[in-house]
Amino acid sequence: MRKSEPLQRVVDHMATHLGVSPSRILLLFGETELSPTATPRTLKLGVADIIDCVVLASSPEASEMPQLLQLRVQGKEKHQTLEVSLSPDSPLKTLMSRYEEAMGLSGHKLSFFFDGTKLSGKELPADLGMESGDLIEVWG
């Protein structure tokens, strides 16, 4: 994992590996709960640091948690398509970073649009009314 990648990538990987909802994955560094939007760089983590992964028990509240959205990110070329699973309450910056890395475009100036509106990355899918299958366009 790169120091600039959000921990949401670890949460998603562990959820898939363990067959549970990402909302049930809790990352801990010592006694401190880690935010999925944090990065190893912002947390000043090194290669020897150990992050614990805890699977929270399923509860009635957990079943009401929003499911992952399957969003499609499309560049101007047909081969520049990426399907991204994202929690409705995760900032879209997570999706943008995954796309840039997957397409080898890290460091390029890209603009992301949803329904004709330019995205800053701070928006949440839930706030924009996004649903699974929605398309985010990339220009740059």
From TrEMBL:
Domain Ubiquitin-like: 69-138
Nucleus in keyword set: yes
Subcellular localization: Nucleus
UniProt entry keywords in alphabetical sequence: Nucleus
Assigned GO CC terms: nucleus
PROSITE patterns: UBIQUITIN_2
Gene Ontology biological process terms from the UniProt entry: positive regulation of transcription by RNA polymerase II
PANTHER family named among the record's database cross-references: NFATC2-INTERACTING PROTEIN
Designated name of the protein: NFATC2-interacting protein
Organism, scientific name: Ailuropoda melanoleuca (Giant panda)
